[in-house]
Amino acid sequence: MKVLKERIIKDGKIREGNVLKVDAFLNHQLDIELFEQMGEEFKRRFEGKKITKILTIEASGIAIACIAARYFKVPVVFAKKTQTKNIAGDVYTSKVESFTHGKVYDIIVSKEFLRPEDHVLIIDDFLANGKALLGLTKLVQDAGATVVGAGIAIEKGFQDGGKLIRESGIQLESLAIIDAMSVEEGITFRK
After folding, report:
1. One GO CC term of this entry (predicted)?
2. What is the three-class DSSP state of 16?
3. Annotation-wise, does 133 bind a ligand?
4. Is 129 annotated as a binding residue?
5. Predicted confidence (pLDDT) per residue in 114-124, tens digit
């Protein structure tokens, strides 16, 4: 997606350790006009697929998922990283490792909001090692629901996550795939 790639070049900042800082428009300050274009593009890429819910993980994926959900006219469910008093009763749980935070989280979704009849599109901001996406996929499978596909804003194509997800048979649609990045050389996108 050309507009997203241009924005990454303009406002993204590369940090040591393969970290891309895009908080000026994607995951701290949010560019809603850009998100609208991303939501429309996800709708185009998953056209004709039966989707009843969008699933994401807190926190950065929520805004993108909400805008995308407007195009699919479905609710958004987000996996929480901590148990709260608001989530009572049965839950689905999975462990995910965050590349950015270097932590392992237990993610949870109430069984009330993920049912066997659901056809779920997973949406997230980044795909690096694939752990979050695999964890979300596990929640859907544990519910007996169907994973329709996964929509990612930015994929780090030089890491194994995209390969893992594609080899698992999930339709993966990334709006911008970075093949290489470094402080010295900048960013190279996949064509």
Report:
1. cytoplasm
2. coil
3. no
4. yes
5. 999 999 999 99
Q: Residue 88 annotated as binding?
A: no
Question: CB atoms < 10 A from the CB of 49, how many?
Answer: 13
The structure tokens 């009330």 sit at 112
pLDDT interval class at 102 (50, 70, 90)? confident
Residue with tokens 């926190």: 59
Q: Is 86 annotated as ligand-binding?
A: no
Annotated ligand binding at 27? The verdict is yes
User: For residue 84, with 0-12 CB atoms within 10 Å meaning exposed, 13-18 middle and 19 or more buried, which class applies?
Assistant: exposed
Consult the annotation and say whether 50 binds a ligand.
no
The answer to whether the annotation marks 111 as part of a ligand binding site is no
Q: Which helix (H) or strand (E) holds 61?
A: helix 60-72
Q: Is 20 annotated as a binding residue?
A: yes
Q: Which two tokens mark 106?
A: 């237990």
Query: What are the structural domains of the chain?
Result: 2-189 (3.40.50.2020)
- The three-state (H, E, C) secondary structure of 105-166, written as one string: EEEEEEHHHCCCCCEEEEEEEEECCCHHHHHHHHHHHHCCCEEEEEEEEEEECCCCHHHHHH
